[in-house]
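Milestone M4 deliverable, item 7.
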Amino acid sequence: MPVEIRVPMLPESVADATMLHWHAKIGDPVRRDDNLVDIETEKVVLEVPAPRDGVITQILHAEGETVLANDVIALFEEAAGQGTTHGADSPVADPSNEKQPANDTTSPPPPPAKQPPASTATERTAPAGPAARHQAAVEDIDLGQVSGSGRGGRILKEDLSVSQQADTDSINPTGPRESRREPMSRLRRTIASRLVQAQQNAAILTTFNEVDLHQVKALRARYRETFEKTHGVRLGFMSFFVKACVEALKRFPILNAAVDGDDIIYHDFYDIGIAVSSPRGLVVPVLRDADQRGLADIESRIVEFGQQAQAGALRLEDLTGGTFTITNGGVFGSMLSTPILNPPQSAILGMHKIQERPMALDGAVVIRPMMYLALSYDHRIIDGSDAVSFLIAIKAALEDPARLLLEV
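Output delivered:
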């Protein structure tokens, strides 16, 4: 009897989802827990595993269609010996059971060799995230011929463009003069909508400052090996910025607040969003209760966020909420930018590239590792004096890290 394959339950805030990519076709043999299809929501990609060994007998929703939670998207038959008896016309029936004509004296041709499931073979030869697998399927790209630039050789979506360009250049050195139209992914549409919403619904203003990271760098250099041996994680810069932001938010709670109609919602907790890039676009997982975490705990969670983002394994609950956001354009080489608010939050801190520059210090010119900081804020509820003072508090904490320990 066919087994119904259904859309998993969607989070409460997600109304529907989009069929992204089928990894198995009708009649393809699959193993238990093999990923049958990727389903894209506004923030994450859900994988639907095979309930047991068998084959898909019917696909009810094609790629690109919109589905709801618990919708039946396919019918599935168990493999022979799994508790279901298949007839001669079953996709997995033994070809030797088919009747041959009585006057046929020739030997029947050998059955075609079984091809391994496309998804399993691809994952063995070239690990790739859902977005990369989907684009490869759409554009008929052999992932086995693509070099991955992600962690552990994982293939990212950008690697497919590089591979295609290399193939094109080898055939036509002048390059093609073509354009192509591609629909936005659900995540990209959501990002676009939220950015426009932020620009239209808030009075965004940005203030700037710069910070001397000499003391933080010296502290990291002094304790780097001991810290890593003790906690099993590298001591980075982000944990210092998170701690500095938390202390500044305690002093200026309006920057940890949100606008709701004619009301201001003040938060007495500190859930800090950390913007990270993924093959599907920018995502902002939330570091809950950042005020209660030590540097090692913060660094560990940030590493996990990065790995989960690259693997497409972040859950929707990891990406919702948050009272303040930090984004680091410096990892891409950005010197200065004006970050956009992450609604409904009222402020966001932008970090940038650390660059050694000559600075005047006590009447002498010295070379210091400097970083520009940018604070974008909602001027409807945050006055310029609070925004500037908040940024100065962050600067003071980072230029004298002992303040973070003493909370002064």
